[in-house]
Write a structure and sequence with these properties.
mainly alpha
């Protein structure tokens, strides 16, 4: 589950980088929002690509074959695994 590992890393590196207490007491607008927006957008894009891969596999009756592929969208690389 590469997506879960990646999301956990983003949580540690960005969301909770200053600790949970900071996060609960801070305004999440302004600079925090501006820095988070591209990260959220990239994660949603990756999720859409992963969903498309999964749906294509289902449509082609390959979902149970374990077939995995790498995909690229511009400079973004979606690693093997769903």
């Amino acid at each position: 589950m590469i997506w879960a590992t990646e999301t956990n890393r983003l949580n540690c590196d960005f969301v909770f980088k200053n600790g949970v207490e900071w996060l609960t007491n801070e305004d999440l607008g302004g600079q925090y929002y501006d820095e988070a927006a591209p990260i959220v957008e990239a994660q949603i894009l990756k999720a859409g690509i992963r969903l498309a891969v999964w749906l294509n596999a289902l449509a082609a009756d390959r979902a149970s074959s374990g077939e995995r592929c790498d995909y690229r969208y511009g400079k973004m690389r979606i690693q093997k695994g769903l």
